[in-house]
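Quiz preparation item.
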């Protein structure tokens, strides 16, 4: 019986430490669809994990880049925030053209911002995305957008765009964990849901 109790405590500790029950950081929005509810929960946990990574890097290392051809640590996160902004424009129907929209993201990436300003921007854009995810109806999720500026001009549903936002986040956050390790900093524990 004692071993069963110890095992149960260990499993509960693992679940809590990996963020599987991260209820404190879930946004306080009610989703209209099951997909929205799932994505809001996932993105709430991803927000927490992302902010943990941002907080780990000392501000003096936010300009660190392992190679001149890649974004700095701070630029990675400004890029993510700018990408969330672009995705929201697509989903709201206010995206104009690549020639008008992309320079703003490039300018944001190169802007001089403090660590705290980057953290605040990323947190706000996560919240904006989660509100949008929660507010979409089944009909809204089936709407689509043609990415004429991508080879092949793929047309993707709004649901697929939300999935892309998570994949894009994971891609760049993976780079950020490598940057941390290259600076001798152990990244925060990964959480997937």
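Solution:
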């Amino acid at each position: 019986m004692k071993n069963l109790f110890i095992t149960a405590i260990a499993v509960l500790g693992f679940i809590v430490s990996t963020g599987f029950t991260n209820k404190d950081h879930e946004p306080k929005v009610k989703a209209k669809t099951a997909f929205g509810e799932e994505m809001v929960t996932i993105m709430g946990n991803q927000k927490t994990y992302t902010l943990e990574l941002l907080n780990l890097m000392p501000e003096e290392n936010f300009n660190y880049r392992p190679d001149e051809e890649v974004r700095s640590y701070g630029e990675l996160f400004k890029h993510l925030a700018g990408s969330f902004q672009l995705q929201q424009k697509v989903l709201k129907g206010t995206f104009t053209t690549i020639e008008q929209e992309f320079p703003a993201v490039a300018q944001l990436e190169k802007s001089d911002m403090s660590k705290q300003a980057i953290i605040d921007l990323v947190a706000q854009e996560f919240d904006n995305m989660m509100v949008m995810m929660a507010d979409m109806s089944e009909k809204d999720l089936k709407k689509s957008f043609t990415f004429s500026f991508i080879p092949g001009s793929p047309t993707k549903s709004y649901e697929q765009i939300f999935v892309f936002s998570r994949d894009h986040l994971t891609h760049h956050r993976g780079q950020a964990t490598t940057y941390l390790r290259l600076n001798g900093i152990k990244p925060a524990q990964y959480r997937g849901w």
